[in-house]
């Protein structure tokens, strides 16, 4: 009987404890305890958005997202083998051992990123090998990988992304539209696996928008190869080339050399990962003479037949101006001044400008102002003003020294002559897109303004045709067989920032074709050629190859008319 009573007392005590606990859970604070229980088994997951593609004018990808995976660790399962798993992942993936080791041991966590944007095939191979080694707690989740199918083609414009952020080029400038918005998921898990009927919430990701450029992938590829060969053959430091649609201003190619592979940017110097065609400033040299003389014609000061007596040297303000070729007194027409690329003849003609008139025209041509095509770090160039514009500077600017430009800026200025005297804004983005600083750019924002009359543009084009004449011109190697071509060479002293002096040269050729009905403007620049060549012999042949390819690619027929025969001497 005593044993029975003791048993009843013990049972009553146990039931009392259970009852008190039940009252606490269901009556005193049921919500808090339910929340604590749920939290122990809830997992928060990021659902990555797919980044928008960067496309060429025909819809071909310059940058795209392909299948990839992120490697996820569940510390509740990986902690016991954390050092071994960290060593394994560091050997097989591009991750740091000391970074992921604490993640594999994170107390209270069931979800830790270990590697992002791993190619799907590699990720699956790694997971299979991990299973074979007996490693527990590793899973995979979709995580698109950025890929640049054309490797170095337009890489200086397109840029690249890192593991978690955009780092350069269009990828960075238009990141807010390309990136989209990641989604999220929260679900209940137990034993390292999702509970099928457990609580869950999902916010779907919003994929990024595509960015459509004006670049022609195939033409860009060709221009880069011609440019690379040109720079190598000339033993130059660097170079760039631009192809522009004469009427729309769309940039079909903007090439830089040296360049880099956007799939592996870390293997290349920082200087090679920007667009020199937009960030570099340099003195354009004699290409600028086309702007000076076209402005003179527009102002009614001269005609292509204007006669000039050109001495072998010209002393102005204690400085002596010479030509690239030695000569005594020669008699040139204005067309001859361009054909022979005479500095002295250009200065004598420019004396007819009213004060400030040349600067006004150059500003209208777009010099001294950024083109605003949507590339970060674009330079404005330098166009002196006020007291900096002395008589000596005025003379030097007339033939292309003492001012600085970028390549796209100068191409757009020459294109103004090709486009009947109308300057059309250059564009790199089709439609419109907003840069990270809020600026809206693109073909929808293109503006057009008249700089010189159509008559002045046509007369200048006729003079520029004489530059390529095999007998009277300085650049017969720039000719494109079967087509009329107008162009201008450039050779300028190059500023060396190390010494603050002129050292080396910049050579170039700019032109358009067909000369009497232009479709494209092409501009080629090479810095510091060491083979002794000038604009006609170094940049001229590259211009010929690029222009010929563009005309054939877009099936532009020859006009069938006779080239200009303006007299160069009198």
UniProtKB/TrEMBL annotation:
Residues covered by the Penicillin-binding protein dimerisation domain: 47-164
Major site of localization recorded for this protein: membrane
Pfam families: PBP_dimer, Transpeptidase
Keywords, ordered alphabetically: Membrane
Keyword Amino-acid biosynthesis: no
Domain of life: Bacteria
Subcellular compartments: Membrane
InterPro entries: Beta-lactam/transpept, Beta-lactam/transpept-like, PBP_dimer, PBP_dimer_sf, PCN-bd_Tpept
Location of the Penicillin-binding protein transpeptidase domain: 239-547
Family matches, as PANTHER family: PEPTIDOGLYCAN D,D-TRANSPEPTIDASE, PEPTIDOGLYCAN D,D-TRANSPEPTIDASE FTSI
Family as reported in the entry's similarity comment: Belongs to the transpeptidase family.
This protein's name: Peptidoglycan D,D-transpeptidase FtsI family protein
């Amino acid at each position: 009987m005593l044993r029975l009573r003791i048993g009843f007392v013990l049972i009553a005590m146990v039931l009392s404890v259970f009852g008190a606990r039940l009252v606490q859970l269901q009556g005193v604070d049921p919500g808090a305890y339910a929340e604590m229980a749920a939290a122990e088994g809830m997992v928060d997951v990021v659902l990555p958005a797919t980044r928008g593609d960067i496309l060429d004018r025909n819809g071909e990808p310059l940058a795209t997202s392909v299948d990839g995976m992120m490697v996820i660790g569940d510390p509740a399962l990986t902690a016991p083998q954390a050092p071994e798993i960290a060593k394994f992942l560091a050997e097989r993936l591009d991750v740091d051992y000391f970074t992921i080791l604490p993640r594999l041991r994170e107390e209270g966590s069931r979800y830790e990123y270990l590697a992002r944007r791993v190619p799907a095939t590699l990720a699956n191979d790694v997971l299979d090998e991990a299973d074979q080694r007996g490693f527990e707690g590793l899973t995979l989740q979709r995580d698109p990988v950025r890929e640049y199918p054309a490797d170095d083609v337009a890489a200086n414009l397109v840029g690249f992304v890192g593991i978690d952020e955009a780092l350069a080029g269009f990828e960075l400038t238009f990141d807010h539209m390309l990136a989209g918005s990641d989604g999220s998921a929260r679900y209940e898990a137990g034993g390292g696996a999702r509970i099928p009927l457990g609580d869950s919430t999902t916010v779907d990701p919003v994929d990024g928008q595509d960015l459509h450029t004006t670049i022609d992938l195939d033409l860009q590829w060709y221009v880069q190869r011609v440019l690379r060969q040109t720079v190598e053959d000339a033993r130059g430091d660097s170079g760039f080339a631009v192809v522009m649609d004469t009427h729309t201003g769309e940039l079909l190619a903007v090439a830089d050399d040296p360049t880099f592979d956007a799939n592996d940017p870390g293997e290349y110097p920082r200087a090679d990962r920007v667009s020199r065609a937009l960030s570099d400033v340099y003195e354009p040299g004699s290409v600028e003479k086309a702007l000076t003389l076209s402005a003179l014609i527009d102002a009614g000061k001269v005609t292509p037949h204007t006669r000039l007596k050109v001495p072998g040297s010209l002393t102005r303000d204690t400085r002596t101006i010479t030509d690239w070729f030695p000569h005594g007194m020669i008699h040139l027409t204005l067309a001859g001044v361009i054909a022979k690329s005479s500095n002295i003849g250009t200065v004598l003609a420019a004396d007819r400008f009213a004060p400030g008139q040349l600067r006004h025209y150059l500003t209208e041509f777009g010099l001294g102002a950024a083109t605003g095509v949507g590339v970060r770090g674009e330079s404005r160039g330098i166009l002196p003003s006020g007291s900096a514009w002395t008589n000596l500077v005025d003379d030097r600017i007339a033939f292309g020294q003492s001012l600085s430009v970028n390549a796209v800026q100068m191409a757009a200025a020459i294109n103004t002559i090709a486009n009947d005297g109308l300057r059309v804004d250059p564009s790199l983005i089709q439609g419109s897109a907003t840069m990270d600083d809020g600026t809206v750019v693109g073909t929808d924002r293109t503006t057009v303004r008249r700089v010189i009359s159509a008559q002045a543009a046509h007369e200048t084009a006729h003079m520029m045709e004489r530059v390529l004449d095999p007998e009277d011109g300085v650049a017969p190697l720039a000719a494109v067989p079967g087509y009329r071509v107008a162009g201008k060479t450039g050779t300028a002293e190059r500023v060396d920032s190390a010494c603050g002096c002129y050292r080396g040269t910049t050579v170039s050729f700019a032109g358009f074709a067909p000369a009497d009905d232009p479709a494209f403007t092409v501009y080629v620049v090479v810095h510091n050629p060491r083979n002794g060549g000038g604009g006609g012999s170094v940049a001229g042949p590259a211009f010929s190859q690029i222009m010929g390819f563009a005309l054939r690619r877009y099936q532009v027929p020859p006009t069938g008319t006779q080239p200009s025969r303006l007299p160069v001497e009198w």
